Backbone:
């Protein structure tokens, strides 16, 4: 398939008017005045823009179903504050209409998983938004381990196991210490009883999987950084509502940020600093960041609108586009496959009438792995 005469936005390089060739599931050619091969389908894109599919680095898409209550809510396993053994892939229903809505809007790849009720909530799955079988749709089955700090674990377990932020940190530290001890005993050849929780945490301590840390307020963000440095972990700072307050400390930590959701009411105390100005502050500090809807908090199809509102508050247009394409792919460590238009990458593409940041933009077609899906 050859996309001809499009206004191409590769993201990694400057926009240009030209052509993109797709062979099978991959981008096979990029340039100006590419000639059709014999029998090749040609899509005339004159007057239209071609973007890479959008990527969401933090959501619960497919895990909290539309128009239904507890029967379709598989976001939080609120039976214990420590549930690293649960996996998002086992609770994701890709046939929910919210996944189709995301796909039609050009969101082609997401990381979805457990919510923020638990101190450690389980793993996120990274998947493409087309298909009926999550196993076939998954890019990475266990892309990150969810952890949460602040008000949510305190609220959920206030009558049982958690009264303060101190115990949130203590519970996480204890799990990390116990997992490290478990690993050392196994490495020494000792007969160690199998423990599914410790087994789930081993990739975190081996830095093969990041700890995906829900943290809004500045003190919680700093606690994440403190524990990550203590145990030499890879982490992502998710939400970072107070990011502008401690931007220097975040920059020094070296950890990436997933900013938002900002298109919501300030529904709790730790959201006092919620603002679409935060992405610009993070960007200006040179920190790798993406913008999130945290869907269904904000419906997934409004990811470009969230980026547009950040643009309104001063974030440059190119940075806005990158924050919903290449940057989340980098944070998820899947940028070798998605997030930009580059030869060899997956052919996840959006054909549209205007900028992704324009509320009047019309999505003309969406392609995932070279197949037209919307």
Residues:
């Amino acid at each position: 398939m050859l996309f001809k005469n499009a206004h191409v936005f590769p993201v990694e390089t400057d926009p240009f008017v030209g052509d993109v060739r797709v062979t099978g599931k991959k981008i096979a050619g990029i340039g100006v005045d590419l000639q059709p091969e014999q029998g090749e389908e040609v899509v005339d894109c004159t007057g239209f823009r071609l973007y890479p599919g959008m990527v969401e680095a933090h959501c619960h898409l497919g895990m909290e179903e539309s128009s239904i209550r507890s029967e379709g809510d598989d976001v939080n396993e609120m039976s214990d504050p420590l549930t690293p053994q649960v996996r998002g892939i086992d609770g994701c229903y890709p046939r929910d209409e919210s996944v189709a809505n995301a796909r039609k809007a050009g969101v082609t790849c997401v990381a979805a998983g457990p919510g923020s009720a638990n101190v450690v909530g389980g793993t996120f799955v990274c998947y493409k938004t087309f298909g009926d079988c999550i196993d076939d749709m998954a890019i990475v089955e266990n892309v990150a381990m969810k952890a949460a700090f602040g008000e949510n674990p305190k609220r959920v377990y206030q009558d049982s196991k958690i009264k303060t932020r101190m115990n949130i940190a203590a519970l996480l530290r204890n799990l990390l210490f116990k997992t490290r001890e478990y690993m050392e005993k196994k490495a020494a050849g000792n007969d160690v009883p199998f423990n599914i929780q410790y087994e789930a945490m081993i990739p975190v301590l081996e830095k093969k999987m990041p700890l995906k840390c829900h943290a809004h307020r500045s003190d919680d963000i700093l606690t994440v950084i403190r524990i990550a440095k203590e145990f030499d972990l890879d982490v992502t700072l998710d939400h970072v509502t107070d990011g502008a307050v401690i931007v220097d400390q975040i920059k020094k930590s070296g950890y990436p940020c997933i900013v938002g959701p900002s298109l919501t009411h300030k529904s709790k105390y730790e959201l006092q600093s919620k603002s679409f100005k935060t992405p610009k502050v993070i960007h200006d500090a040179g920190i790798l960041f993406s913008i999130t809807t945290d869907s269904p908090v904000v419906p997934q199809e409004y990811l470009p609108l969230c980026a547009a509102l950040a643009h309104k508050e001063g974030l440059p247009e190119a940075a806005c586009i990158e924050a919903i394409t290449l940057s989340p792919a980098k944070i998820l460590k899947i940028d070798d496959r998605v997030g930009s238009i580059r030869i060899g990458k997956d052919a996840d593409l959006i054909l549209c009438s205007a900028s992704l940041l324009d509320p009047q933009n019309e999505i003309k077609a969406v392609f995932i792995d070279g197949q037209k899906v919307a």
In short: The mean pLDDT is 98.
